[in-house]
Amino acid sequence: MRDAKSELSKISALKWVLVAEIAGFIFIILTCWVTEFYDPPFNWSQVLIETVATVILGSLTVYLTLQLIKRIKYLEGLMVICASCKRVRESDGKWVNLEQIISSQSELQFSHGICPECAKKLYGESL
Predict the structure, then answer these.
(1) What is the four-CA torsion angle of 6, 99, 66, 23, rounded to 10 degrees?
(2) What 3-state DSSP class applies to 95?
(3) Residue 31 lies in a domain
(4) Gyration radius of the chain over CA positions
(5) What is the domain extent for residue 92?
(6) I need a labelling partner for 127 at 20 to 30 A (CA). Which of 18, 25, 72, 87 fits?
(7) 5-33 pLDDT per residue, tens
(8) Quick check: is 81 in a domain?
(9) What is the C-alpha separation between 66 and 14, in angstroms, rounded?
(10) Residue 6: inside a domain, yes or no?
(11) Closest residue by Cα to residue 70 from 17, 22, 113
């Protein structure tokens, strides 16, 4: 039940992001019209061009935001990790490297190196 609530709260938060973007662009359009109305003479062509440009920019912004939202992935829950070798137990009981878990759940790729402390332990002062 907690997972469903968590998922709903994420979805509603993402919807609020889109609503805020759309409201912002509507505010910009209204500002263009009000400004033109109170600054005579009323220039129809200018306000229409500004409105069309704002609608195009707003549509593009909302579309790109939706595309970015689709790429968001969440890693949540309790993960059992070996205190010694740092392998992770999967739901079927199989133990795998942490890199495999993260790579299978995302588009992240790993590159390995050796930190200075481990290099000192492995190779001594010869480095």
Answers:
(1) 60
(2) strand
(3) yes
(4) 26
(5) 88-126
(6) 87
(7) 666 677 777 888 889 999 999 999 999 89
(8) no
(9) 9
(10) yes
(11) 17
